[in-house]
Every structure is written in C-alpha cells, then in structure tokens.
Amino acid sequence: MRTANRVARKLKAIDVIDVLSDLFILRSVPGHIRSDNGPEFVAKAVQEWITAVGAKTAYITPGSPWENGYVESFNARLRDELLNGEIFYTLHEAQIIIQSWRRHFNAIRPIEFLGYKPSAPEVFMPASAAWPAALRRPASPATLQLAKRPTLN
Fold it and tell me: Which of 19, 93, 112, 131 is the least crowded, having the fewest Cβ atoms under 10 Å away?
C-alpha cells in the first residue's frame, strides 16, 4: 500500500492529482487506486487523470468502510493518537506535527505482530548503490585539457 498525506484546510481535485503524481513518480503507477467516494476523489478531473496515467479506480461502496480497512484503521489511529489530543494554532504547525506522527507510525513504531519491528522502516542507500551511474564521474577539466594537448613530433 502506498500512502501519503496532505494537510490543508480543504482539499480539491488538483490536490489529489498533485499527491498521486508524486507517489507515482516515486513508486510507479499502480494497477488500481482504492478510495472513498469523497468529492475530491470522484471529481471528473481526477478520474480523467487516473485513466490517462493507466490506472483504474476502485471506489469503496458508500457505507462499507471494511472495504478499505487499512485506511480506516490508519484514520482511526490518527484521530485517537494525535488529533483528539492536539490543538493546532496554525496550518504549518499541523502539517509538521502530522507528518512527524505519520513518519513515526510507519517507520519507527514497533508492531508486535511483526516481531516488534516497524511496518515500513526507512532504508537509506548510498547514491552509488541506488544509481550505479553515479559511480561513473566525468573526467575533471584538468584531465580533459591534458588529453587535448597536441603532441610534438
């Protein structure tokens, strides 16, 4: 499952497209996108964009939260563990605190079922491992100038 969060006072269709496009660039286009029937997800612009990138929609049936159990569970924990105990004075403060909580929830919080490991631990790879082309560095300008000097015969 791919997750992201956008904290704002109101989300529109273009916000959904923006977040999804970032996810698709990072993790590739999925076969299906499951969501509820909120106006920002069922908007014509979002449906057309999802179709244009080659994915399909899988909306949950209204009144059937069990069809989207992972998201419903996450939203319940977000509400119980964070939102019900915080007062946000600014939108920026809410963005920082919610992002920090989500990172902890996914990458740090141990889960008993997983042997007290996090569900999605962060993995850091050196650039040379992630992109082998990073190992091939262009020749320095000094080396290039030495190679271009004419030889005297």
Answer: 112
Q: Output the DSSP codes for 70-126.
A: HHHHHHHHHHHHTGGG---SSHHHHHHHHHHHHHIIIIIS-BGGGTSB-SS------
Q: What is the pLDDT of residues 18-49, one digit of tens each?
A: 999 998 988 889 998 888 777 877 788 888 99
Buried b (16+ CB within 10 A) or exposed e, 134-147: eeeeeeeeeeeeee
Q: Which of 85, 83, 95 is nearest to 7 (CA)?
A: 95
The overall pTM is greater than 0.90: no
Report which secondary-structure segment, H or E, holds 15. Answer: helix 13-27
User: Quick one: 16 exposed, middle or buried, by C-beta within 10 A (0-12, 13-18, 19+)?
Assistant: buried
